[in-house]
Amino acid sequence: MTVTRFAPSPTGYIHIGNLRTALFNWMIARKTGGQFILRIDDTDPERSKEEYVDAIKEDLEWLGLTWDRVERQSKRLDLYDEAADRLRNIGRFYEAWETPVELDLKRKKQLNMGMPPVYDRSALALSDDEKSALKAARGAGVWRFKLDHARINWTDGILGDLSIDAASVSDPVLIRQDGQVLYTLASVVDDTDMGVTHVVRGSDHVTNTATQIQIIEALGKVPPTFAHHSLLTGPQGEALSKRLGTLALRDLRESGVEPMALLSLMARLGSSDPVELRRTHDELVEGFDISHFGAAPTKFDSDDLIPLSARVIQSLSASDMAEHLQSVPEDIREAYWMTIRGNTPIRADADKWWPVFAGEATPEIAEEDESFVKEAFALLPEPPYSIETWKAWTTAVKGATGRKGKGLFMPLRLAVTGQPRGPEMADVMALLQKKPTL
User: How far apart are CA 117 and CA 162, in angstroms?
Assistant: First the structure.
């Protein structure tokens, strides 16, 4: 059975980059009838907050990305300790005491000599007495995994065949000086223990994947299938990282973005498949193929969500929008919605036009049009009006004033609605509840 996971850290809100990872893993699981695990990476007690755990769930539920089970890494610390002991017993785990300043000096020296800035494994050469002295002086050290200096090969679901020379990579720190287990070890233990078969994540994890493959194999397990999607950039190719604070899912939601608009864009962006609005989650899943995605950075522009969201809105019925149409009398609610939905980009704007139909719009009248509009309104009878009223009225006004074209229609639209653009005026007039006043 296919098993995937999404493993966010509850140290902030989910942003658009996180969504891409969550969505790909969710679609793989749903397409194959497998399991999708929401795994909360809360091993850092200082930065992890329960309010962010709740926010992560809320954002995923808003998008309809349901999970089959929830796991908390903070409740699995014993398993990580067991894995660490196993690595120690087979000689693949060692303690090191260098300070950040010492490591930085080593890196600078290596770079000045034209060498790759890779940890030199000096901790492996320490005698027992030297280790005891360092521990007495500095306390506990960090624990590093000893890489086997061979090539690490795997076939990536997006990037194809990959090969990384382990000698070009520093032995990764898996446990910090304060005893906190880091992501690399916790993820390996969880993925193998939970039977995760497919891991999709950003291309910035490629080197991390190479080291994890060796850790998994050292623990006697079989690595899952990995796929690394491209990273998102801004519309001009600029780094998106500085803008992620404004691209949190909850901010997009509050701005009126529709869930299916966001999912439709993110499910195909960066692939060879066209971005098309999908109406249901099943339609999203049906055409998804991870191999259709490329390695090149993918441009994301939040403005692309505006027309997609508008199309979702325009497909909704008055009953779908009932919550946002409370100010509109029920007997004309359907006709009202059908008239204005093409000019309603977000749900919150659904009742924005009601004051116009209620005869409460503030007219916009240019100084040079004042006498013209006054004469025109004198030719407008009292309601009720019909779909024919606009044509009959403008024909009468044209005959009386000689105005035509934009000079005829625009001043009347502005006087009736207060807006330069909007629904067809014939439809507007048919729903006016009383004669507009100047």
Answer: 22
Closest alpha carbon to 95 in 206, 37, 175, 2: 175
What tokens appear for 182 in the block? 């880091």
Residue 271, strand partner residues: 293
| Side-chain-facing half-sphere of 218: CA atoms under 13 Å | 25
DSSP 78-118: HHHHHHHHHHHHTT-EEEE---HHHHHHHHHHHHHTT----
pLDDT digits (tens, 9 = 90+) for 222-261: 999 999 999 998 888 887 765 555 689 999 999 999 999 9
Provide the mean pLDDT of the chain. Answer: 95
Residue 35: helix, strand or coil by DSSP?
strand
Residues sharing a CB contact under 8 Å with residue 419, sequence separation 6 or more, in sequence order = 356, 361, 364, 413
User: If you search the block for the tokens 């993925």, which residue do you land on?
Assistant: 191
Closest CA to 295 of 162, 184, 152, 154: 162
Per the CB < 8 A criterion, the answer to whether 190 and 165 are in contact is no
Q: What CATH fold (topology level) applies to the domain 79-175?
A: Glutamyl-tRNA Synthetase; domain 3 (3.90.800)
423/419 Cα distance (integer angstroms): 10
Say which residue the tokens 């009223």 belong to.
389
Taking only the tens place, the pLDDT of each residue in 21-78 is 999 999 999 999 999 999 999 999 999 999 999 999 999 999 999 999 999 999 999 9
Q: Say whether domain 1-67+230-315 belongs to CATH 3.40.1670.10.
A: no
Q: Report strand pairing: 69-72 vs 35-40.
A: parallel
The yes-or-no verdict on residue 124 having pLDDT over 70 is: yes
Distances (CA, A) of 204 to 85, 200, 201: 29, 12, 8
Q: Would you kindly state where each structural domain of the chain is located, as residue ranges?
A: 1-67+230-315, 79-175, 324-431
